[in-house]
Amino acid sequence: LVSELRKDPQWYRQMGIHASSDAVNAGFTTPEERESIFLQNFNDVVNLCSYSPFNSYWILQALGRMNKIDEAIFAIEQCWGGMIHLGGTCFWEIFSPEWLRWFSSSPYLPMKIPNGENGWTSLSHPWSSGPTYWLSTVLLGIKPTSPGFRNVDILPRIGSLDRASGTVPTPRGPISVDIEYSGNDATFHVTIPNGSIARIGIPIFDRFHRKVSTVNGSPISNLNLDAEFILFSGIPSGDHKFQISLEKTTPIIRKSMFPPPEYPAKYLGKDIKTKGDWIGKYGSEGYSLLHFTETGGDLTKLPAFVSTVETTWNEAIKGGFPGPSPARDPRGLLDPRSPNLDRSIGAYYNSVTFVIDVSLKFERNYSVALYMVDWDYPNGIWEGGGGKGRRQILRVMDLESLNVVTPSQVIEDFWGGVYLVFSYNRSIRFRFSTCLLYTSDAADDLLC
Q1: Is residue 363 within 8 Å of 398, Cβ to Cβ?
Q2: How far apart are CA 30 and CA 93, in angstroms?
Q3: Which pLDDT tens digit goes with each residue over 56-99?
Q4: 251 preceded by a cis bond (ω within 30 of 0)
Q5: How far is the C-alpha of 12 from the C-alpha of 30, rounded, in Å?
Q6: In a 10 Å sphere around its CB, with 0-12 CB exposed, 13-18 middle and 19+ buried, how is residue 384 labelled?
Q7: How far is 195 from 13, CA to CA, in rounded Å?
Q8: Which residue in 9, 166, 178, 278 could disulfide with 282, CB within 3.0 to 4.6 Å?
Q9: Which is it for strands 299-301 and 287-289: parallel, antiparallel or unpaired?
Q10: End-to-end distance of the chain based on CA atoms, in angstroms?
């Protein structure tokens, strides 16, 4: 199967970051392929942290296999450290570093967290525990090689960190590792429980020109080297200390190793003045007025370059919600069929999420405006009795790759009606997600 795959020398070029992670983790990729895959999909700080920490774990594993240890540490700091920064005491079901732009830790923080595609967001979720395993098995390098940790490898890879330490419980007792660098010297302490035999490796690829000077106080020569480690086999139980001298210190400066984020789509801004008077300003090439007609159907005139506008994960209603009649309300959208300029409005409702997909027949530059109004405010959900209406998150993605293509937007205080305007050149997905304790219940229409 791999030989068939490689009949196309760039077999990975159509893969996104998750499929690429699977390929790297499967163990068949060459160093050249891994470097190309990294540059194609992993060198993107926007999509590095998958929306689900569960998926992000497989990205961490792939970064470890590619020896991108600093990049993996950066991903942990961004994805899981971000939850801690916002005051999390457990790791959450979903998270995006974008949330750091919107929220700060507060008593009402749980109300602000967006829900996911499939339900309410759990704020204590076991599938977000991946870094614990990764830090133990990759950063500290502690892995059993026979049942019950009878034999164990300790092959740490700490990147540019100055110190790493940790303990892994085993059936025979704890295994502890402590590595610390100071100037041209480093110490490596290892504790091995009774009944275990270890193979220990001193990493040589993350800092150069290294030699081991002593082990448990005794000088050593005739080192056993492989491509990544100075290896010591058959190390019995007990406490062991390795003293390491650096013939030449390689300066290491920890910083983000990723270029600044680049978004292929543009957010052009919001418009709160136009309200329902869109004709002549938006929709010159086409429009889709969702659940707009008297029978609850869409009123659609698609541009020549758009094939479909589809919605999913929704319970759609037209009218019938509390609030004023749209016929004479300035927030209601003008009816392009009516010479009397009657107004109407449609609504999409879901307690968790829904999406609007715009599929293009061919690539071309275009702008698209989404109109939203929290129609029945102040009868909607209030935050802590504060009367702030609904809050939802708009995440904008490429429809094919599902990569984020422009910074996500928080939509709030929109009872007066708001247009969000974007420009792009490919098929696009708009995903609306409610925040915890909120309901996504807003009129939404699409104007190109």
Answers
A1: no
A2: 33
A3: 899 999 999 998 998 999 889 888 998 888 888 889 888 888 88
A4: no
A5: 12
A6: exposed
A7: 48
A8: 278
A9: antiparallel
A10: 45
Nearest to 432 by CA among 414, 53, 100, 263: 414
**Taking the CB of residue 82, how many other CB atoms lie within 10 A of it?**
19
Give Rg (Cα) of the chain: 28
Instruction: Tell me the three state secondary structure of residue 157.
Output: coil
Helix axes 69-85, 53-65, angle to 10 degrees: 160
- Half-sphere exposure at residue 286, Cβ-oriented, CA atoms within 13 angstroms: 16
Dist CA 98 CA 282 (whole Å): 29
Longest dimension (CA), the chain: 96
Tokens of 271: 């418009």
Listed residue (51, 55, 52, 35) closest to 43, CA to CA = 35
Instruction: Check residues 229 and 347 and name the one with the higher pLDDT.
Output: 229
> Of 307, 310, 443, 312, which is closest to residue 380 (Cα–Cα)?
443
pTM, two decimals, is 0.78
Q: Token pair of 133, please? A: 């395993």
Encoded tokens for 290: 């969702």
Phi and psi at 413, nearest 5°, equal 55, 45
